[in-house]
Amino acid sequence: MQIIYDTLKDAGIRYDEGPDIGGDYGPYIQSERAAIYKEYAEKLVKLGGAYYCFCDKERIDSLKDENGVGRYDKHCLHLSKEEVAEKLAAGVPYVIRQNVPEEGSGSYEDLVYGTVTVDFKDIEDGVLLKSDGMPTYNFANVVDDHLMGITHVIRGSEYLSSTPKYNLMYDAFGWERPTYIHLPPIMKNAHEKLSKRNGDASYQDLVDKGYIKEAIINYIALLGWSPKSNQEKMSLKELEENFSLSGINKSPSIFDEPKLCWLSGEYIRAMSAEEFKAVALPFLQKSKAYGRYDEDKLLKMLQSRVDVLEDIPSKVDFLEEYGEIDPALYFNKKMKSDAEIAKAVLPKAADVFKNLDKFENAELYAALVALAQEQGMKNGQVLWCVRIALTGKENTPGGASEMAELLGRERSLERLAHAMSLLA
Ligand code: ZN
């Protein structure tokens, strides 16, 4: 969008947030630019596509019902040339209105929605040039697009039904209509649109949270568009090659954060250790555990388990937060473990830790599995209990042996002793 705004700025047009349709367009336009629109509006009058309206506020209000709803009645369309010239000469305030046929309909081909037809009776003779000489959005966008040589208009589907109104102007001026591509909105749920104005996350917010940039782009491309293949993870280059308008859905898509999360994780898993370190380190530095453990080991463990980088501190903070262990944590139905099993396992695990030559993940894992076999237990019974004892947490970013390696032999033994004392 920035590119478009900059282009407009170069053309002497200033857009801020972007005016809403039918909204007050005046503040967005520099005054020297206004003369151009006035010229085009007057030209459109000569061509029959618009007319001067001198109705005062009172008359316009009289056309509205108690709810403020009411259409303009084309009263001034029927003024004679002489009457119009007279009023203009006398300085009577006026607006210029679009002259929409009273009968018939306007059709166009939208590349997503197909043939769209709107009855002219559903389109009002809207104001194109206001009494202060400023154009409305409805008029300025047509003039701007023409002057800038816009060939394709891509915009939200809320404009589907107002497009015939713009086409009437293109036709009246004798300008070539652009190709229209209306896109369905992105929703945050079944009822509400995703909107930065309502506090929904922007691209930058998502980057700051630690979603991988490539994953965000990839995910957004998949919103409302389905590739022909089932492949969902696509690089920008692959998106370029595969994207086609024909895959755009007409129905709104819902912004599904868990799916973005999953995709972000896929990108993290595909990174080299160096690439992951570059993006993950700033998040690791926010953790209490930072600086106290082997950074590369921590990162290696995290790379296989984290989807969004902002989750890093919560995944490693347990290394520094250790104290009470809820005995209920030893209970795991699937692993068939509980506090009684832990009582039997932990002293034996402590012996294993003491006697192991290399206190590293692979050796620790093999030794704990061997312990389970020797005791006639399931592997899970030993590994679950040891992991709970070492961390005091139900969820950790690694298994028992990884946690032990990270903590080191001395602290692992201290923690096992502490856990055993709580069970006694
Ligand atoms: Zn009028």
**Beta-strand percentage?**
5-15%
From the alpha carbons, calculate the radius of gyration and give it in angstroms: 34 Å
Question: Whole-number average pLDDT?
Answer: 89
Bound molecules: zinc ion
Note poorly predicted spans.
Answer: 1-6, 11-26
Largest sheet: 3 strands, antiparallel
Distance between the termini: 65 Å
Number of strands: 9
- Lateral arrangement of strands in the main beta sheet: 1-2-5
Overall morphology: rod-shaped
Helical amount among residues, as a percent range? 40-55%
Structural class: mainly alpha
**Sequence of secondary-structure elements:** HHEHHEEEEHEHEEHHHEHHHHHHHH
Q: Tally the helices: what do you get?
A: 17
Structural description of this entry:
The chain is mostly helical and 424 residues long. 46% of the residues lie in helices and 9% in strands. It is built from 17 helices and nine strands. A three-stranded antiparallel sheet has the order 1-2-5. α8 packs across α10, α14 crosses α16 and α14 crosses α17. The longest helix has 24 residues. The radius of gyration is 34 Å and the shape is rod-shaped. Bound molecules: zinc ion. The site of zinc ion has 5 residues, from loops.
Secondary structure layout plus pairing:
Blueprint: H1 2-10, H2 31-46, E1 50-53, H3 57-62, H4 81-89, E2 95-98, E3 105-110, E4 114-119, E5 127-129, H5 137-147, E6 152-156, H6 163-173, E7 179-183, E8 186-187, H7 203-209, H8 213-222, H9 236-242, E9 253-254, H10 257-269, H11 273-284, H12 295-303, H13 312-316, H14 339-355, H15 361-374, H16 379-391, H17 400-423
Parallel strand pairs: 6-7, 8-9
Antiparallel strand pairs: 1-2, 2-5, 3-4
Helix pairs in contact: 8-10, 11-12, 14-15, 14-16, 14-17, 15-16, 15-17, 16-17
The protein binds zinc ion.
Zinc ion is lined by residues 53-55, 75-76.
